[in-house]
Amino acid sequence: MMRLLLHRQRGFTLIELMVTLTILAVLASVALPLTQVAAKRSRENELRRALWTIRDGIDAYKRAFEEGRIRRSADDTGYPPSLAVLETGVTDQRDNRGPRIFFVRRIPRDPTCDCPERSNIDTWGVRSYASTADNPQPGRDVYDVHSLSLDLGSNGIPYRQW
């Protein structure tokens, strides 16, 4: 009889197992949204860094243009003709040996773009100097860049307007 009692006390009851599984399900349902928010914030931080990198390269190109280090023509605005120029560089007009001036090491990829078939440069929308801020359009130069994503940021502003 004593053996039978000891044997029955070793296992878990069905109710104990159900309570444990319910607690685990509640914890998982709380953790999932937190990981999604953390992933979105991480992607947004990447977007901020990428925009800063490209915009800093555009500004560096403009400074080099104003310093006379880039070949000029009468109708140039001083902004790069394409994003690729920031990466491939231009010949320094001040130096006889003609070294190249590079403005970014590489064009970063837009982290909000879920399009693996596109190149890094093609993941960005560009705004020319001649277009308005509320309706950015490409043109013969690159004055600014923006994300092509239609999603909203965690601050409620579309990524396209960052």
Automatic annotation (TrEMBL):
- Extract the SUPFAM superfamilies matched here: Pili subunits
Query: Which chain regions cross the lipid bilayer?
Result: 12-34
The entry's keywords: Membrane, Transmembrane, Transmembrane helix
Asked if the keyword Glycoprotein belongs to this entry, the reply reads no
| Keyword Magnesium in record | no
Q: Which NCBIfam families match?
A: IV_pilin_GFxxxE
Name of the protein in question? General secretion pathway protein G
InterPro entries this protein is in?
A: N_methyl_site, Pilin-like
